[in-house]
Write a structure and sequence with these properties.
alpha+beta; Cyclophilin
């Protein structure tokens, strides 16, 4: 697969692959991410996968020290770019063997009412009923292509076009944590309270972002999400259970 490696500021590289959103490209991104991680390259501090790219954060000083130990004169960015390019080219010749296990994370959602103020508007826009929107939205699992925008915010692929709707012209100043929204042909979940322009159709009582935990995000790139409709009473019950 075609790729490019370029600098992203002074402490990161970005690897771009085929510019389209698909399961195949997503799997390839995870495959390359895994291959780079397995090399334990000196100086790399974090790998951030996205729809069709990977951002590689690094410590230039640590890499510079390593370069000097090797007796080389390369700049840290050029040295790391050469290594990453070699890994990707070598990996392309190998069979893909992802060790990332596919998880299906069930997310309970109370649709409509105070939890989903835009649900009826989404139904009207698409000339269908509220029940149709809920059935379509919760009818299949969604692949988590990436996390972004806010800590733990999952960008999901594969939403049905029958319930697509443009973002709001004027974003809300505050959207409650756990809100499930639609923007264009995408759907996602707000893990924290934040401004946003997505159409809110429901809310989950689950805490998607817990910064005090070793693994602060409930959902990871590569997971699948399955939305489970619940009643308001169930929402309150699950909320109470999380704080006991």
């Amino acid at each position: 697969m075609y790729f490019t490696v370029s600098s992203l500021g002074e402490k990161a590289l970005v690897v771009h692959f085929e510019q389209k959103i698909s399961v195949d490209v997503h799997q390839y991104v995870l495959h390359i991410q895994q291959s780079i991680e397995e090399k334990h390259i000196v100086g790399i501090t974090e790998l951030v996968p996205a729809y069709c790219s990977i951002v590689i954060h690094y410590d230039p000083y640590e890499i510079w020290l390593h370069i000097n130990e090797l007796g080389l004169t390369d700049k840290p960015s050029a040295y790391l770019k050469q290594i990453v390019t070699h890994i990707i080219e070598s990996t392309q010749q190998q069979e893909r063997k992802l060790t990332h296990s596919t998880r299906i994370v069930e997310i309970p959602v109370c649709y409509g009412g105070i939890y989903g103020p835009d649900l009826q508007e989404v139904a009207r826009y698409n000339d269908c009923t509220v029940d149709d929107v809920i059935e379509i939205h919760s009818g299949k699992p969604y692949l988590v292509h990436m996390l972004g925008f806010a800590p733990g915010f999952p960008y999901l692929g594969g939403m049905d076009k029958r319930i697509a709707m443009p973002r709001k012209a004027i974003p809300r100043p505050v959207i409650e944590a756990g809100s499930v929204g639609i923007a264009g042909e995408q759907t996602g979940i707000y893990p924290i309270s934040t401004p946003g322009g997505w159409r809110i159709i429901g809310r989950t009582p689950l805490q998607l972002f817990r910064p005090q935990n070793d693994m602060p995000t409930l959902i990871q790139a590569g997971d699948y999400i399955k939305f489970i409709p619940i009643r308001a009473e169930q929402f309150e019950e699950i909320s109470r259970m999380q704080w006991t």
